Amino acid sequence: MDQARTIGDKVRDVRKRRGLYPRELAELSGTSVSLVRKLEQGERQDIRMPTARKLAAALRVPTTTLLARSGDADHAPPAVNRRLGARAARPGRQTPRPQRGRTAHCG
Predict the structure, then answer these.
(1) In angstroms, rounded to a whole number, what is the distance separating the alpha carbons of residues 86 and 67?
(2) Closest CA to 35 of 14, 27, 26
(3) Whether pLDDT at 107 is above 80
(4) CATH fold for domain 1-67
(5) For residues 10 and 74, is the Cβ–Cβ distance under 8 A?
(6) Cα–Cα distance for residue pair 39/43, rounded to 1 Å
(7) Left (φ > 0), alpha (ψ -120 to 50) or beta: where does 5 sit?
(8) Could you give the C-alpha distances from 88 to 17, 77, 78, 101, in angstroms and in order?
(9) What is the pTM (predicted TM-score) of this model?
(10) Which pLDDT value is given to residue 46?
(11) Exposure pattern of 42-80 as b/e (b: 16+ CB <10 Å)?
């Protein structure tokens, strides 16, 4: 498979691998369908960093996957992917933190 050269190519490739339609990606990322389509069709070549982050988060890839230039690695190093995976696996504390000091009931 040829390496994706533009941000739009990368967005389209990852979106299709995730099984998403442009409208679904727009909803998940909080962007417009028009933006997603223009990027993918090459009508827009640049996006702001916050928009790139939103798209990357919705696609569940590091932002660098979308922003890496041709010739650069298309994916973040494995260590970064492991850290991101670990964060996704533990969205919040599973067990309550024990209380210290006095109890609320003082007899």
Answers:
(1) 23
(2) 26
(3) no
(4) 434 Repressor (Amino-terminal Domain) (1.10.260)
(5) yes
(6) 6
(7) alpha
(8) 19, 17, 15, 33
(9) 0.62
(10) 87
(11) eebeebeeebbbbbbebbebbbbbbebeeeeebebeeee
Please state the three-class secondary structure of the chain as a single string.
Answer: CCCCCCHHHHHHHHHHHHCCCHHHHHHHHCCCHHHHHHHHHCCCCCCCHHHHHHHHHHHCCCHHHHHCCCCCCCCCCHHHHHHHHHHHHCCCCCCCCCCCCCCCCCC
47-102 residue pLDDT tens: 999 999 999 999 999 999 998 876 554 444 443 444 444 444 444 444 444 445 44
Rounded to an integer, what distance in angstroms lies between the CA atom of residue 20 and that of residue 65? Answer: 17
CA 89, CA 84: separation in Å to the nearest integer?
Answer: 9
Length of the chain: 107
Query: For residues 89 and 64, is the Cβ–Cβ distance under 8 A?
Result: no
pLDDT tens digit string along 42-61?
A: 999 889 999 999 999 999 99
pLDDT value at residue 70: 60
